[in-house]
Write a structure and sequence with these properties.
Blueprint: H1 2-10, E1 33-34, H2 41-46, E2 61-66, E3 69-74, E4 79-83, H3 101-104, H4 113-137, H5 145-157, H6 165-175, H7 183-198, H8 200-203, H9 213-224, H10 232-244, H11 246-262, H12 272-279, H13 298-307, H14 318-328, H15 341-348, H16 350-353, E5 364-366, H17 368-388, E6 410-414, H18 424-445, H19 447-450, E7 454-457, E8 460-465, H20 466-487, H21 492-495, H22 498-506, H23 523-532, E9 547-554, E10 559-579, E11 582-586, E12 592-593, E13 598-602, E14 605-619, H24 625-633, H25 638-667
Parallel strand pairs: 4-5, 6-13
Antiparallel strand pairs: 1-13, 2-3, 3-11, 4-10, 7-8, 9-10, 10-14, 11-12
């Protein structure tokens, strides 16, 4: 670690993942140009150009009719090029920021991967909010955390004085589980709550936990109980109560299992190792255990590996370091048996940081600017994903030929059609992630209970079962993968690399079986359903996604490193043929047409797409969604917003935060 710090101070910090050396960028893309007319198959092969031999495979063939002439294009050997031209007309040298995708008003024949990420964010938030309340109150097979607190408190009042009664009462008061506190413990409970609320890094509700008072209560209750217990007597007493109450033990283990499956494995030992030692007739207590420990994440693991307890260098960029290490292979995101949903969500983003390693890479050539857009999408999507899991995640302290001049009777324009950006692996992995989380929720609550839980929104619950919402999202992402793979001239099976197949095997999913993934109605159905899906008409896509989420705390500076999602920017992306498909044209009488009767031209398509604008900054104080959005609305550009955030989080937001937290202190 010290060697790494010395290298940091000797070189400029990396803020973006470097592009692989020796890779050629896309050739310049111009307006649609005429291309050589179709030639006989053998001649095409001799010229080193794509030719058509035999019958085209149905899965890689597109056909359409132009003035009575039937056109067939074999996509199996085509390759596309995506380029992002330099921006023109940006305000003050910076792109305009839009608070929502709907405000950007972009319409494109190709869906942006960012639009799908935004759609997923809304479902993910609503899912987590609904699950949090269900876990607190109890649902289906799971009796809930409120029941656990009541059980511990009842035992502490009847023969278990070693239990941390003040801590349990403080958590129960914050969570709304109990109102009255025994007089002998009132002072200790008040002291604990006051100290906790004074520490905003731990106590300030963020994300979906600002939607309602019950969610705010759950946030603060659980954050308090994430603190490590260092008194062995307290740990043993809590474990003994669980061992004596079978229903409580089952509930506790179920709550922990669900937290691990939803987010990731615990960063601190919980009470289960002590429980197992008691089962063996022994008492084995470690140096620290947490009642409901936070979950670890790849980004915080990397931060601790690079920094540990050493001073944090100026300009340290965690998300840039993470992207660089994903690209060079030193950070492996492949899921393991211990992985949670957040781990799968992060793994799904890998093709955005390292597109050259994606199975679809041989069919797609990306210019450097477009790679930068994918990297921006990686950073923005990771920020949104982390904010969904904000309560549970640990915050460590630390070309073609030139046209010819002829006037044919029939012109055939062949365009590089894409239903969505060609990040097939991202879509596939996202679809599998929804299957994963549905299985986890069914295991925790039962399949029947999941049909009675509804996704939450800031405006209340939606009248659709969460099980149905999850199936629709799995089908949407799987349909995107199937549609784009077909547009690239690939079989979807080609995109299923060994890591994806291993992840499917862990879920007992047979990916080669049509209907095993997605809606269950087959690949063609899901692909067509995705092509019909309209992002502009989807209410989830129009929601405001601007958020701030903490990553780690700098003890020396007493500041918090945070990721900030600032909004959306519009960028134009040009899609052209790096290697065109083989095309044959048949006249109305059935014979194969050739020049000058027909002229086949390979063109390019321009798409105006939205991409996220994200930053990694150091702040004195965290802002919740409302506070951040109000600040962003007062400033129009990324630099102005960041200047206000880094220089004024303490002064500009202090009064708002104090006013919001005061009722909590009065209740306590």
């Amino acid at each position: 670690m010290l060697d790494w710090l010395r290298r940091w101070r000797g070189h400029q910090a990396r803020t973006e993942a470097p592009l692989p050396r020796g890779e050629a960028s896309c050739p310049p893309v111009s307006a649609p140009q005429a291309a050589p007319a179709p030639v006989a198959p053998q001649a095409a092969e001799d010229a080193g150009c794509p030719g058509a031999t035999g019958t085209f495979a149905p899965s890689t063939t597109r056909s359409w009719v132009v003035q009575g002439y039937r056109v067939e294009a074999d996509l199996s050997r085509q390759a596309l090029c995506l380029a992002a031209p330099a921006e023109v007309g940006a305000e003050d040298g910076e792109p305009r920021l839009f608070p929502t995708l709907r405000a950007a008003g972009l319409s494109s024949r190709m869906a942006s991967a960012a639009v799908l990420a935004q759609k997923a964010k809304q479902l993910d938030d609503g899912l987590v909010a609904a699950v949090e309340l269900a876990v607190q109150r109890g649902a289906g097979l799971l009796r809930g955390k409120a029941y656990l607190l009541e059980t511990w408190l009842a035992s502490a009042a009847h023969g278990s004085p070693a239990a941390p009664a003040a801590l349990l009462l403080a958590a129960a008061r914050l969570g709304g589980v109990v109102r009255d506190v025994p007089r002998p413990l009132a002072a200790d409970v008040t002291r604990l709550i006051d100290a906790f609320l004074a520490d905003e890094l731990r106590s300030k509700p963020l994300g979906v936990y600002t939607w309602s008072e019950p969610l705010r209560r759950v946030f603060q209750q659980d954050r308090l109980l994430q603190a490590p217990l260092r008194d062995p007597g307290h740990v043993e007493a809590l474990a003994r109560i669980l061992r004596e109450e079978a229903a409580a033990r089952t509930t506790y283990e179920g709550v922990l299992a669900l937290a691990s499956r939803l987010t990731g494995p615990p960063a601190t030992p919980d009470l289960t190792p002590v429980l197992r030692s008691l089962d063996r007739g022994q008492v084995e207590v470690g140096p620290a255990h947490a009642i409901f420990p936070p979950s670890r994440a790849v980004e915080t693991d990397l931060a601790m590996k690079l920094l540990g307890d050493a001073p944090i260098p100026d300009g340290f960029d965690l998300v840039g370091e993470l992207a660089a290490r994903i690209r060079d292979g030193s950070v492996d995101l492949r899921p393991t048996e211990a992985s949670g949903w957040y781990d799968l969500q992060t793994w799904a983003l890998e093709p955005l940081a390292a597109p050259e390693r994606a199975p679809e890479a041989p069919r797609v050539s990306l210019d450097p600017r477009y790679r930068e857009l994918l990297l921006a999408l990686f950073k923005g999507a990771l920020t949104l994903t982390r904010e969904t899991h904000v309560k549970q995640l640990e915050i460590p302290l630390a070309g073609c030929a030139a046209p010819t001049s002829r006037r044919p009777s029939v012109v055939v324009d062949v365009l590089p059609e894409l239903a969505a950006e060609p990040t097939v692996s991202y879509y596939l992995r996202r679809a599998l992630g929804y299957r994963f989380v549905r299985r986890a929720l069914e295991a925790a609550f039962g399949a029947d209970a999941l049909t009675r839980i509804e996704r939450l929104t800031p405006d209340g619950p939606l009248e659709r079962p969460l099980s149905e919402e999850l199936a629709l999202m799995e089908g949407l992402f799987f349909g995107a993968a199937a549609a784009v793979a077909a547009d690239l001239g690939m079989s979807l099976d080609e995109v299923m690399d060994p890591a994806f197949r291993d992840a499917c095997a862990a879920l007992d999913v047979l990916p080669d079986q049509d209907g095993a993934l997605g809606s269950g109605r087959g690949r063609e159905h899901d692909a067509e359903a995705f092509r019909r899906w309209s992002a502009l008409e989807d209410g989830d896509v129009g929601r405001d996604a601007r958020v701030m989420v903490p990553v780690f705390h700098d003890l020396e500076r007493r500041k918090t490193k945070a990721w900030v999602f600032l909004g959306w920017a519009a960028r134009r992306v040009l899609v052209s043929f790096q290697r065109p498909p083989a095309v044959r044209v048949f006249a109305p009488d059935g014979r194969e047409a050739s020049p000058p009767e027909v002229d086949v031209r390979f063109g390019a398509l321009a798409h105006d797409l939205a991409y996220p604008v994200m930053a990694e900054i150091t702040v004195d104080r965290l802002l919740d969604r409302d506070e951040l959005r109000a600040l962003c609305d007062r400033h129009r550009t990324r630099s102005a917003i960041l200047a206000a955030l880094e220089g004024g989080t303490r002064t500009s937001a202090q009064r708002t935060g104090d006013a919001r937290d005061e009722p909590l202190r009065r209740r306590a």
